[in-house]
Description:
The chain is α+β, with helices and mostly antiparallel strands.
Amino acid sequence: DENGNVTVTEEGGASSNSDSSKPSSTPWLGLRVKELPNVIREQLDIPKNEGLQIELVAKGSPAEKAGITVNDLLLALDGKSTSSSEEISNRMGKMKVGDIPMLTLMRKGKRIEVATKLERAPKKATHPKIPKSIIEAFGDNSLKSFQTNSTGKDLDSMLSNPELPESFKEQIREMKKMMERFQKDPMNGE
Length: 190
């Protein structure tokens, strides 16, 4: 979520535990990564099989406590190169709370090693005003910045963007219809 509360299940997939009141035993690092842009990869001579850009470090997370910052490059986890978020999730899914993985980072062109103690994952964030059917239909990530009291102007501006594929615009139109129904009748908007 927007606070970096990304968790992984024991199998390494995204957590969807519906009972968020139970304490989690899932290890948590508290960062979100994205694919490394080719221009950065080429300029820093980073091989294709390593490197992710850190785009979010959650406040109070093990990553923040270890001094990891936004725009650091994550090159390896426990000495093994990494180049995808799925790979990180799979490896994290095999770890336990209290484990201390070694992260190889690049910051300002220099490789550094950082050890961070994994903590218990925080409770999964919920969207109390957004119906579960909408979250399931469009995915948790698509709703990060959408507000249920939105006038729809943001969506309309996206629909008028000629660079967006028509298939994506159709999803936006459907999302807009669902949100309008929900805003009119929150109890029956699903």
